[in-house]
Amino acid sequence: MRLLGIILVALWTICAVTLSGAQQQSPSQPQEWTPRGIEALRKGASSKTEFTLDHSMLVVASKLDPDNEELRRVIAGVNGVAVHRFRYAAGTTYDAEALRSVKEEYHSTGWKQVMHDENIGGQGITNLWLRLENNAVSNVAVLLVKPAEVDLVSISGSISPVDLVHLGGHFGIPKIEGGARVPNTAPRP
Q: What is the model's pLDDT at position 25?
């Protein structure tokens, strides 16, 4: 299994170098925006995994799962995915002030926070932000925080929050478990 992971990373690297050399950035395609607070979170981490996949890379990667039509449908509207995954050594944790600054930057630049879920006992926090353009979702950011890890996934393009379910488990995006919480309003016997 570990060998398969190494082979996939090598293929991604080759694909990224080939595509970046052959593709010029168009003026209308915006650069991926990342909050400045991410740099402080990166500095304190003992393990860092970061990558960005543009649309053409996502299309190539989706061919690894040829039977997943929903995934290809979602990718058709996605311009890119950026993943920042930080792990902290035993006994250390993320810089709470840096994490707060990330949240403030999203708020101050016009993103709308649509979800904040904090697990009981403070063992995990999930935040979901959307950026709207002309009343349509243009960007989605998901921040997952646990005591020894921080994951930030940014997705640009035409995507709905429901489409995140189809992207979960692919391209470094954590699998979304549990779905939506719906209160039980049925009368009890």
A: 36
